[in-house]
Amino acid sequence: MSIKKSFLLILISISLTAFSQKKIELNDVAGRRLFVQKNITGLRSMNDGMNYTSVENQTKIVKYNYKTGNQVEVLFDLSKIENPGFIGFSDYNFSNDETKILFTTNQHPIYRHSFTADYFVWNLTTKEMTPLSTNGSQQLATFSPDGERVAFVRNNNIFVKSLKFGTESQVTRDGKTNEIINGAPDWVYEEEFSFNKAFEWSPDSKFLAFIKFNETEVPMFNMPMYQGQNPELKENQLYPGSYNYKYPKAGEKNSVVSVLVYDLKSKSSVTAETGDDTEQYIPRIKWTADASDLAIMKLNRLQNKLDIVLANPFTGDTRAFFTEKNKRYISEDFFDNFIFLPDNKYIVLNSERDGYSHLYLYDRQGFEVKQLTSGNFDVTTFYGFDPVKKIFYYQAAKESPMRREVYFVSLDGKKSGKLSTQTGTNQADFSSGFQYFINTFTNTETPNVITLHDQTGKLIRTLEENNELKKLLKDYSIGKKEFFSFKTSEGVDLNGWMIKPANFDPTRKYPVVMTQYSGPNSQSVLDKWSIGWDDFLAQEGFVVACVDPRGTGARGEEFRKMTYQQLGKFESDDQVEAAKYIGILSFVDKNNIAIWGWSYGGFMAALCMEKGAGVFKAGISVAPVTNWRFYDSVYTERYMRTPKENPDGYDDNSPLSHAEKIKGKYLIIHGSADDNVHLQNTMEFTERMVQAGVQFDMAVYTNRNHGIRGGNTSMHLYTKMTNYLKEKLQEK
Predict the structure, then answer these.
(1) Domains of the chain (ranges, CATH numbers)
(2) Cα gap 380→397, rounded to integer Å
(3) Residue 706 annotated in active site
(4) Which of 147, 205, 618, 682 could form a disulfide with 95 if both were Cys (CB 3.0 to 4.6 A apart)?
(5) Span of the secretion signal (predicted)?
(6) pLDDT digits 0-9 by tens, 173-216
(7) Is 648 a catalytic residue?
(8) Which of 333, 378, 386, 674 is catalytic?
């Protein structure tokens, strides 16, 4: 065969391959979810550390062996239960002795993390299914450690169900909507301290500690609710209804919180002594391993000083135990990485005191024993401690802020190393006893690969490779996500990624869409797999780029916290510089660059349109904060202090203050029932633009919350944004 003929056949083959590949449809990424990675659902390690369970089809709990990866037995099969009372479950938990299972069914959301549900208890010994309560839906149902009782919240009060006697007793009686909440956090605690359960059983099952929230003085926020569709609120057909809830904005009154300990034997409660500061936060309560004390975290309103006191559960008397201070603020990582180890001798905590997020070991008297991890990198997750081998396990961004690895270090510091082997993002789930772990690995080119390993990191078997998804992807022409970095005019190195258009031609000039979030300690530039709207836009002829500015995570405390008291300033400076850098690339049309974002990213897009007038031809803000005075107290004051203390910080980088500077085409979008970033932000900003004579486009989605989803909403939203970008950047 001649070289000429062979070359011709190769060209034909390439052409046929390109012709046969499918295009991503907008509905694939905005409506239905076509490109979905498989995970192991409902993973639970069993007490023996030799087996684990997972869920199939929301109806089965299957037991597997760690060592072999093989199925051992089906522990529960809903289809074989006569009249179970539900048709599927969204979650399950074993009692500590693994003789009972608590099922979560029929969930109805309240806020982002909270929900009501119907719970059922399955007895593995007697094969009986019983509803937890028949007196109304519940929240936060939790087994006592001895498995004899379940505590839950209903209508802002705490109840305890005796599984032995079938009786339901009421622990609190003062719960009242928009006034008193027992055992569940108020709106701002749930959203900004990232938890939805505010009660804890003592390890010996004798006490139930809980936080009481008195939100009587917290200002009320009202949102009109319309008839709408999907769901349709028929009662609002003629006159809109109103949704009212307590929302503390920056500088306003918060809930007054207290900690109580309920003694199940005496059926009485004592209030723990937490001092006279009614403005302090209590972000966590935790029992010591021997149940002798309840640790209470007390965080001052500025969030730069955290005291931990130990409370006597019988009397409520407290004694000082530990204090952490920071010249800016205590990072949220501290709350869940403060752990009493099972041996009852040591405490592990997370601190940034050396400039990076690291693990420290303390004794039960509150004295530092040693720093467990060190170096110019951030520890991102603490997995736990093996008391037999005296090994600590953790995740860190040691090799790159854009990646995650799994590591170990011994108590004496003589042994340390990396357990994960692949470059990208690794997340481990260890067995009870730490003899095995299941690792989930991904990078930009690889959907989740889930593997089973022994404690040395040795691969036992692969549990999930997402082969069906990989096969599906071969039918599509999807651009590769390429990482890059550049140095700003201030000498700061920033990381980013870029997706070039399908059939990329380096001699052409392409329009650019910059996507970002940019919020404190967030990261959008990570080596992990995803297919979404970004990929669709690249397919449609855009270069899509993303840059993490100053203030984002995994690069140490100084980089992360330099935005303190001036949110938006450095992040927007960096995004404008990123646009200028991208604009000089040979294949970029610098006159056709857009920026968009959601929530904090929407705030950033608006500010960049103002500060980068002439750099950005178009911008889209979805659900943006437009002045931090409108946002909640906990989040905003953590980074900004109060408006009274820092008025210039609030106003100098507020989009409201610079509306007249917008030169490009601008689209602003919001949900009318956004309980997080209120529509107020958009309404006040658009009025500033109106009075400044700035033309803009706007869309408000009826009765939609911060996620702007429901029915055809997502498809409509992404169609609108796609068309807007095409019209403003591609049409000549």
Answers:
(1) 173-218+253-333 (2.40.128), 471-730 (3.40.50.1820)
(2) 7
(3) yes
(4) 147
(5) 1-20
(6) 999 999 999 999 999 999 999 999 999 999 999 999 999 999 99
(7) no
(8) 674
